[in-house]
């Protein structure tokens, strides 16, 4: 295995992956088997209810509006795009006109997306068309 | 010039496809008009091509595309316009133009008007492919195409039991003959390596005699089916179930002559095997008299004309078999004109008589239908071969061929047939148009056909009269292509005696027919008269009992055999085996379909199972490769 | 101070990018049009999509003539690779899409087509597939694959029935797993060779004589698993019947053609160098996949009671059939695959469109599935034309001469025989025979049985409109007259494939 390690610096990652995979699988199987074997089986009615301890399951009183998810998603989207702009700004001079054009195109695409979200009412609360 | 070739070939196709668009709809007059115009375009292009060839132009040869090229087999879609095919093209397009226009009137009240034109134009296209192809494969495609269209047209009134039966009969009988033809084609390809006419003909002289004989026989079997020669002739008379314009176009002028065309086209082959040629000629002469005798007593107007067609086809084969290909082709052409005319006239009569076909129930129609009477009489004169109409020139030439080639038996048979032809033709004319009106008994009020239908028929009338005058031009046209020679009877005296004798014989027959059937007091036969009791009459009336014989000795035993095979062999052995296999497959399918439970977790699990199996193989392969040295040592230790 | 990067436009060879940019621009345009004027009739979007697809087609024609002059083109820092395979497959993708999009013009109103987003996503998806086939960079393949797949999931869900949501979620989940497989496989190959370009990977692996065979095999296993998912090879096929059932018939037909050809091209690029390097194990594994997929899917198709599910299984079987060509890997086989797929496009799109015209909004009482066999019983009595056309497509799928797929099957089988895979050819022929059984079953239902329920009569053809008729007509003509086109097609495809070295 020696030559593989020297030739491939990422081999370690692979080994880790395999180990993780194995360990994960093993853990879940062991946990399931163990709980099945060790758990005391009680078929009392209240034990079979969801929380096993009495309280009735009720509706969630304070539901989250899907708007939050939408906002979070949009924020994430536009925020992540900024990540591309920092390295570009740092190397602005090196990248020159080519880089500039590329970034302009990128921003135009983003802008279209932004306008789309805006016009569709995604930025307004409770007003999605 | 190639432009005209394409127009002539594809205008009918366009016409057919166009009409086919409207098949499911109500009658549309413009469909008929446009179809007729397109066919007329094809006719005009053919005329241009004819003029080109007549003026000594080179034959036109085009290759449309390669149709099939696998291994050694190379079949291009090629078309040729030479002296022979241009004559056929003229005949086909002229008669089809007339028939298309005529059908506008004839099919006027039919609810499937549009479908009729789709089939009819499709037929013209197939026929054009048949005659224009420059190879046997293309000819065969056209051959099958006309067979298919003929099936569709005979069975055009598909809700009539007898029509569908006749359509199937025609189709199946032609299939039998086509099998022979296919074998012939395979033999040609096997021995010469090509299906192109020119190359095959060039290769024929190098083959041994027996092979050539077999090729000749098998190709002729194909021709026998399409041209309804004995013993495959029964379908033609039954094919009269179709609409009359169809009979005129397909079963008189064009399709049935395809067999003759095949023999003429393959003349370099038949030149090499004169024995087969003699057989063809003898069979032709036999069919000529055989069919004519059946026409003598028949009581169905269309069937009489159909038998007459059969008889004339016999003439053509007699000429072709004796090597006089140009005479055969000339008779084919002249016959197409007057026979189509006769059929269209019969169509007029049928319309007038509300589809009554028995001429004994007609009589004295000449007052009501003057023009039809004139046309049918002239056509019958032409058919009987009376000077100076078209039939005289073509039929006389055939008789001369028989005489000059010293085949006196064939000559005599054909001569007698000429007399019979004259008799039955004028028996028909006399019964329909002369005597006293018998139709009033049946409550029919006849009327003449539409004017434009009569006008449409007029080109045929003119050609039936004057076609003989073109004999010399025609001879020069095909002289080179068919190695044509003049058949001269050396002594002038013999020649004159022959011509005058024949004419006298024919005229006497006509006169006798008139005398016997144009008089007053003819009754509709009811099977009681002395003639009808005679053996000969019964024999002829029942078509020599041949259909009965076929039914008794081929159809019934076949049905018996089929039922035995079905019950014993098929149900118990074949079906059981097939069912068994199907059952096994089916149950495997059912048993394993549990894999598709629709449960997402199950599906994901299956994917992972697949991957894990793959990974296991991968790891195994990797380890095996890694430790191959150790492994082989280990295995060697085990003695493997 | 670093020197400024100087990139000349010529070295970028932007022409290679043009065919993908056109649908993207079209999609953006559709979105923008909708922003400024909403509630425009769907036919405008259909026409816009066709227009852009047609421009795309012309751009492809341009690159194909460039290919014929100069051979394989590279562009955009050698990421884009325009060779014969890319061109032919893009032609198939674009033409199939052009045939699909008019199917939106139905006489009934359907939820998905009222959204312009449907058409925008559709065009994005096409661009994704085009990226997938026109590169040998594993990352760009991945980007293309994901662009296309994510759009496709949404398109399926937009059909707006319970089954469609189910289908979309299933497809999405399993697709995510497959994407994981793919990226993992790519990672291993990168780890082993230090490159993400297939030809580089091949060079490195061949140079070191496959010394890391175990890792190559593991990478291969992952990549194969992901493509087996896309190509619906057994046992990675489980999504296909459910997804086909859940999506609209037209979409199902489309899905059986376009995503698969893209996946086939990538599979060809990836697997063939492995096979040609003499890795018998790769070949053996693919062999098993091919045989199992063909046979098992056929057997399952036999027992279906719903025509659409039957067609779904039959599509799986056809994919297995075509996969055989990838396994054989000769020029002849690859040509045969592309020819097969061209012919399959017409036939399969036609048969799914025939189901699409009989789409019901609501099921009748007692009806279990949308397109049960019973629905088509005695069809010949009520609408002989529809029955005949459907029968035509079935015969073609069964490989009856002279209809389209017969030629495809013939060339594929003869490619197998020429390369010495006689047993495989035999299995393929046998499977065609089994397949004939269930295709004929539908014909028997249509022609020989009496109608089960007279209400079905009204349902058949209820969704028919002129544009659907046109598409079905084109498909039927393509199916019938394929024998004319087979030879020139074969010449053209053969030229493209040969000149790109596959």
What would you note in describing this structure?
The complex is a heterotrimer of chains A (129), B (640) and C (502). Chain A has 129 residues and is mostly helical. Chain A has a single domain, classed as NADH:ubiquinone/plastoquinone oxidoreductase, chain 3 (Methane Monooxygenase Hydroxylase, Chain G, domain 1), CATH 1.20.58. Chain A has helices at 2-7, 11-38, 45-48, 66-90, 92-119. Chain A starts with a helix and ends in a 10-residue tail after the last helix. By secondary structure, chain B is mostly helical. Chain B is 73% helix and 3% strand. Chain B contains 26 helices and two strands. Chain B has helices at residues 2-21, 29-54, 83-106, 113-132, 136-154, 161-192, 197-203, 209-226, 234-238, 244-253, 258-265, 267-272, 274-297, 301-321, 325-352, 370-384, 390-404, 408-433, 451-466, 471-478, 492-517, 530-533, 535-541, 546-592, 600-626, 628-638; strands spanning 60-70, 73-81. Chain B has a two-stranded antiparallel sheet. In chain B, helix 1 (2-21) runs antiparallel to helix 2. The termini of chain B are far apart. The longest helix of chain C is centred in the middle third of the chain and has 32 residues, at 162-193. Chain C has one domain (14-360, 372-500). Chain C is mainly α and 502 residues long. The radius of gyration of chain C is 22 Å and the shape is globular. In chain C, helix 11 runs antiparallel to helix 15 and helix 18 packs antiparallel against helix 19 (422-448). Chain C has helices at residues 9-12, 18-36, 42-70, 84-100, 116-133, 138-157, 162-193, 198-207, 213-230, 239-246, 249-255, 258-276, 280-302, 307-328, 331-356, 379-382, 384-398, 404-418, 422-448, 455-459, 466-480, 482-499; strands at residues 73-75, 80-82. Chain C has a two-stranded antiparallel ribbon with strand order 1-2. Chain C is built from 22 helices and two strands. The chains are: A mainly alpha (129), B mainly alpha (640), C mainly alpha (502). Chains in contact: A-C, B-C.
């Amino acid at each position: 295995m020696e030559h593989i390690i020297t030739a491939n610096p990422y081999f370690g990652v692979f080994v880790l992956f395999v180990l993780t995979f194995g360990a994960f699988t093993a853990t879940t199987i062991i946990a399931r088997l163990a709980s099945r074997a060790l758990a005391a089986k009680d078929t009392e009615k209240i034990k079979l209810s969801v929380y096993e301890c009495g309280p009735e399951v009720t509706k969630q009183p304070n539901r989250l509006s899907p708007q939050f998810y939408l906002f979070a998603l949009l924020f994430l989207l536009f925020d992540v795009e900024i990540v591309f702009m920092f390295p570009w700004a740092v190397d602005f001079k090196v990248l020159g006109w080519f880089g500039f054009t590329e970034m302009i195109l990128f921003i135009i695409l983003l802008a279209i997306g932004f306008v789309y979200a805006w016009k569709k009412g995604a930025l307004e609360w409770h007003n999605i068309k | 010039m190639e432009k005209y070739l394409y127009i002539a070939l594809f205008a009918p196709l366009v016409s057919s496809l166009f009409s086919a668009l409207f098949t499911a709809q109500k009658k549309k007059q413009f469909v008929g008009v446009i179809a007729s115009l397109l066919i007329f375009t094809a006719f005009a292009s053919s005329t241009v091509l004819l003029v080109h060839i007549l003026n000594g132009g080179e034959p036109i040869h085009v290759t449309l595309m390669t149709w099939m090229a696998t291994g050694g087999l190379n079949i291009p879609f090629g078309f040729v316009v030479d002296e022979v095919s241009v004559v056929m093209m003229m005949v086909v397009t002229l008669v089809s133009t007339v028939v298309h226009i005529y059908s506008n009137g004839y099919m006027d009240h039919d609810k499937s008007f549009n479908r009729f034109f789709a089939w009819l134009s499709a037929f013209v296209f197939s026929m054009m492919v048949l005659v224009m192809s420059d190879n046997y494969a293309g000819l065969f495609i056209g051959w099958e195409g006309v067979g298919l269209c003929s099936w569709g047209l005979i069975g055009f009134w598909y809700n009539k039991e007898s029509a569908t039966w006749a359509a199937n009969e025609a189709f199946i009988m032609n299939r039998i003959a086509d099998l022979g033809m296919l074998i012939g084609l395979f033999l040609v390809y096997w021995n010469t390596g090509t299906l192109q006419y020119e190359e095959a003909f060039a290769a024929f002289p190098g083959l041994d005699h027996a092979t050539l004989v077999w090729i000749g026989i098998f190709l002729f079997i194909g021709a026998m089916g399409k041209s309804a020669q004995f013993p495959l002739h029964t379908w033609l008379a039954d094919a009269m179930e179709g609409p009359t314009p169809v009979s005129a176009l397909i079963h008189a002028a064009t399709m049935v002559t395809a067999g003759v065309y095949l023999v003429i086209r393959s003349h370099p082959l038949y030149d090499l095997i004169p024995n087969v040629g003699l057989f063809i000629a003898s069979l032709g002469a036999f069919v000529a008299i055989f069919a004519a005798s059946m026409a003598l007593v028949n009581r169905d107007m269309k069937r009489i004309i159909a038998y007459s067609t059969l008889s004339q086809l016999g003439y053509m084969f007699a000429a072709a078999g004796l090597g006089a290909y140009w005479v055969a082709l000339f008779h084919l052409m002249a016959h197409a004109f007057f026979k189509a005319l006769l059929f269209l006239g019969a169509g007029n009569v049928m319309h007038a008589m509300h589809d009554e076909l028995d001429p004994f129930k007609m009589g004295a129609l000449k007052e009501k239908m003057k023009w039809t009477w004139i046309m049918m009489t002239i056509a019958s004169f032409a058919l009987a071969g009376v000077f100076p109409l078209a039939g005289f020139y073509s039929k006389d030439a055939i008789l001369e061929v028989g005489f000059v080639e010293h085949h006196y038996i064939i000559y005599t048979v054909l001569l007698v047939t000429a007399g019979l032809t004259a008799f039955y033709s004028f028996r028909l004319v006399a019964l329909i148009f002369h005597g006293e009106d018998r139709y009033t008994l049946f409550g029919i009020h006849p009327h003449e056909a539409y004017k434009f239908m009569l006008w449409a028929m007029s080109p045929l009338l003119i050609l039936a009269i004057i076609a003989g005058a073109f004999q010399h031009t025609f001879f020069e046209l095909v002289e080179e292509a068919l190695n044509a020679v003049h058949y001269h009877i050396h002594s002038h005296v013999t020649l004159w005696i022959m011509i005058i004798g024949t004419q006298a014989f024919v005229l006497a027959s006509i006169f006798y027919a008139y005398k016997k059937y144009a008089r007053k007091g003819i009754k509709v036969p009811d099977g009681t008269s002395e003639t009808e009791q005679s053996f000969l009459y019964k024999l002829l009336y029942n078509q020599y009992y041949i259909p009965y014989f076929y039914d008794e000795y081929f159809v019934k035993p076949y049905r018996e055999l089929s039922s035995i095979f079905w019950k014993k062999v098929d149900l118990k052995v074949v079906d059981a085996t097939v069912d068994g296999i199907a059952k096994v497959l089916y149950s495997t399918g059912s048993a394993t379909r549990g894999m598709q439970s629709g449960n997402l977790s199950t599906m994901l699990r299956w994917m992972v199972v697949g991957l894990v199996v793959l990974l296991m193989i991968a790891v195994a392969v990797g380890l095996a490769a890694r430790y191959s040295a150790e492994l082989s040592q280990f295995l060697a230790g085990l003695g493997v | 101070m670093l020197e400024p990067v100087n990139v000349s436009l010529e070295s970028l060879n932007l022409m290679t990018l043009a065919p993908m940019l056109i649908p993207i621009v079209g999609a953006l345009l559709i979105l923008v049009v909708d922003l400024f004027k909403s509630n425009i009739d769907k036919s405008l979007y259909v026409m816009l999509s066709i227009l852009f697809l047609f421009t795309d087609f012309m751009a492809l024609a341009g690159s194909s003539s460039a290919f014929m002059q100069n051979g394989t083109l590279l562009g955009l820092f050698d990421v884009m690779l325009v060779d014969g395979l890319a061109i032919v497959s893009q032609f198939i993708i674009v033409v199939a899409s052009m045939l699909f999009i008019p199917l939106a013009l139905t006489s009934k109103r359907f939820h998905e087509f009222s959204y312009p987003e449907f058409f925008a996503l559709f065009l994005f998806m096409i661009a994704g597939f085009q990226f997938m086939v026109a590169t040998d960079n594993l990352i760009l393949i991945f980007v293309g694959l994901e662009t296309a797949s994510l759009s496709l999931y949404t398109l399926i869900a937009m059909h707006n029935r319970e089954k469609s949501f189910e289908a979309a979620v299933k497809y999405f989940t399993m697709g995510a797993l497959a994407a994981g497989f793919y990226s993992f496989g790519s990672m291993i190959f990168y780890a082993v060779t230090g490159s993400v370009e297939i030809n580089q990977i091949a060079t490195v692996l061949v140079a070191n004589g496959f010394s890391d065979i175990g890792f190559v095999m593991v990478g291969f296993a992952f990549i194969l698993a992901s493509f087996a998912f896309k190509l619906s090879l057994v046992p990675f096929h489980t999504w296909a019947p459910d997804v086909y059932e859940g999506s609209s018939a037209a979409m199902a037909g489309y899905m059986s053609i376009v995503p698969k050809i893209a996946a086939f091209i990538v599979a060809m690029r990836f697997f063939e160098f492995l096979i040609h390097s003499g890795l018998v194990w790769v070949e053996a594994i693919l062999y098993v996949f091919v045989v199992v997929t063909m046979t098992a899917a056929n057997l399952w198709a036999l027992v279906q009671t719903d025509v659409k599910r039957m067609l779904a299984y039959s599509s799986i079987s056809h994919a297995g059939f075509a996969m055989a060509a990838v396994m054989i890997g000769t020029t002849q086989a690859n040509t045969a695959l592309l020819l097969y797929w061209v012919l399959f496009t017409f036939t399969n799109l036609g048969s799914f469109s025939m189901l699409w015209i009989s789409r019901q909004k609501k099921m009748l009482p007692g009806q279990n599935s949308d397109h049960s066999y019973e629905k088509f019983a005695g069809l010949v009595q009520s609408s002989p034309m529809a029955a005949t056309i459907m029968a035509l497509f079935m015969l073609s799928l069964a490989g009856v001469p002279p209809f389209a797929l017969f030629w495809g099957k013939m060339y594929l089988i003869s490619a197998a025989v020429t390369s010495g895979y006689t047993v495989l050819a035999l299995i393929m022929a046998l499977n065609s025979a089994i397949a004939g059984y269930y295709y004929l079953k539908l014909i028997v239902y249509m022609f020989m049985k009496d109608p089960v329920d007279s209400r079905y009569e009204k349902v058949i053809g209820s969704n028919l409109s002129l544009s659907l008729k046109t598409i079905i007509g084109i498909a039927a003509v393509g199916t019938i007259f394929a024998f004319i086109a087979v030879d020139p097609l074969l010449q053209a495809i053969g030229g493209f494939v040969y000149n790109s070295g596959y």
